[in-house]
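mind reviewing this fold:
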Amino acid sequence: MDEGKGSKRRGGREQTTAAILDAAEELFSERGFTAVTVRDIATEAGVSHALVHRYLGSKADVYRAVFARDEEAIRDAASDEQDLLAAASLMLRKGFADERNYVRLIAHSALHGLSYERTVGRFAATERLLELAQAAAAAEGDERDPEALDPRFAVAAVVALFIGWMSTGDWVLRAVGLTDLGEEEVIDSFERAVHQLLRANFPTLEDPEAG
């Protein structure tokens, strides 16, 4: 087989798969899993529904592929960062910048009864935050405050706060009269709130902006 033609086919398949996943993410985040069909995804992506099945499989397979792709992107934003606060900031900002539909998809799925087991089955960004939180707790050793949250719960609180904010932030800002804040001010304030939550449970952490 001509190498140039093979490369074009691979590139074409990769581009088409990306378009299908983009379309699926948009539809799933708007309507939820049950209200979207493979034909809906195909129409949105501009391909045949047979091609969706051929490249990605069933609707459930497409759904899991969306989760896997976007979760890795958030994790990779801080893959080399060893500081919990800095890693949290990088992941949060990646979510705000590029992954809003994905985070809303998580919220939509949870609120409409889709079980955790029917997703990709693991969340790499959450696992990375937990790894760093457990390392921070271990570094405190015997000096760790017995009233501090279990690192798992501290990470759970941050993740829940982020998912909830991405889904309801506009409403909440209006409810408390903060409509005068610009987008960057909102993100900065949210980031500080997350840092405060983490420092309350890992007091030895240093603010990455401080120095």
Notes: Residues 67-211 form one domain. The longest helix spans residues 3-31. The mean pLDDT is 88.
